[in-house]
Fold this protein.
Amino acid sequence: MRELTRVTPATTDVLRVLAGSADPTWGLQVVKQSGRPAGSVYPILDRLERMEWVSSEWEIDDSRTGPRRRLYRLTAEGAPAAAAVIAKSDQHLVSAKFLVDGAI
Amino acid sequence: MSKLAEWLVGIAAVGLPRGNRARYAEQWAADLRDAEQVGVGRFQIVVGAFGVTAGTVRREIWGRELRATLSWVQPAIFLLLLAIPLYFAVVRDDVLHLFGGPGVALRGSFGVFSYLMGGGPLIYLLFPLYVVFISCLRLYREVPTSERVTVRRESYLFARLATAGGISFVAFAFSTFLLFVLAFYVWPALGNPSVDPGVYFLTPETAVTSSFTESTYSQLLALGPLTFGILYSFWVGFCAAIWTSLAMAALLTVRNRPLAVALPFLVYIAQWVAASLLGNVRASFAASTFPFGYQQTSILAGAAPMLVLTAIAAAIWAKLLRPAHRPDVLFPSENNAATPAT
């Protein structure tokens, strides 16, 4: 697994969605749950997969015909790394909130 | 919208490496089909698909290709492109009155620009040679060692073409723009040395309006000097990229490498001689790129020779990139019927 050189808020949101689900998550569901546009989420998923934070597989659903959905999940190494990124982001949020509340 | 979106994500998938195309084409098709279920717009999916493709192309071209292509040669030629006109201006004609030379009388800012762009015959006549040296040296070196090329063919050719064309475009557009800035902004700040519109029975004001009709493309000056500078710089860069594409096509199809890289220059000169002999030098590729000193025509008529050449280059590359027409020079084993394709 390679290090992410750039972690944007959108990346954190995508990681948060994937970390919040025990099962593999459909790419479009990540778009929906992260609240980020597909224009951001698709390239992020692509990058996370290249960096081996995330792996993907085809959905197995015999009830649905035609093209298959692609499901994403954090890799064994990606899961703790994602948790660390999310924790760091949350810490920043708490600090920011503290500063704002303090100012008030 | 549904069909259009499917068509667009199909286009986006084509831009990906071959190994990923089928996967993403199917994935995006499924997303488009089920987009309504999760309330995500199809347009978003199209944007996302092109985002993935753009990222891939950027990595392949800017990350890998550009780093492998750039060397001391490009900056050296870029500096030469600037040094030649400055040498003619400052040393030969002493336009800055530094050496007591003969000097010249220039009409105005456009006159200065025309003079610098003329740069003697060293730029006007040798243009395709500079283009080849600035953009095609890497492919020139790689052609005889093609067995080491293990990347997929279309990607390889497209990446080389995009990188070399991009380098040409940037180098020539930027050098042209620098000369434009020098003529239109730096020169007045220096007190407009050698600018003497009175010699042409003009005032500084009428020199500006007369420049609108001085040569082809100078009509654009009526839209403002900066508009002219940007558009004309882009045009020179575009012409350079076209010559790059032709030189690369020649390298891929002609076995004699020196001849291949010389071909664009030979075509350029032969067509210029032919146009001159036919009494219409303005129809030459040279005048289409550097129209200074020739009577003004419409922009379309001036650009026509290079636009025709663009169409020819596009047709050649369309054929080269078709799997059925693999360049013999670069992929000899793949064209050998006795050798199974790998």
In short: Chain A touches chain B through 19 residues (CB under 8 Å).
